[in-house]
Amino acid sequence: MFNVRVYKTIWNKGEKEVHDILDNQPDRNNELNPSSYFYDVALEFPPFINLELSSDSWESGNIKRVSWDVDEKRFYCYTDDEYPSLNNHATCYRTLDFDEDFLKSKCLRHGWKPLTAEE
Fold this sequence. Notes:
Layout: E1 2-10, H1 15-24, E2 35-43, E3 52-54, E4 59-69, E5 74-79, E6 91-92, E7 97-98, H2 100-109, E8 113-114
Parallel strand pairs: 1-5
Antiparallel strand pairs: 1-2, 2-8, 3-4, 4-5, 6-7
């Protein structure tokens, strides 16, 4: 079995604005407040790029990066970041407009754990 930790980041601003701040406006970095989550799972095979993991109530999303920690004997996988829609009060499933609080609560409901300094 392979020990795997999957990471997901949820941002507090839309994707375009986050990338604009990170790439062009470093003086505004303090406005960004990403929340990171993790999920531990055991696999019978090593994870790979583009793999999507799921169970009854959990799904990883598309894995974009995989690394192996020799000391921990664990794979670390990173999924696509999630961004709230531009409409700050959106929670409409049909248009996939979700606000930051909805994205965070969805992660917690599906078993993701908030990443802390100890993790």
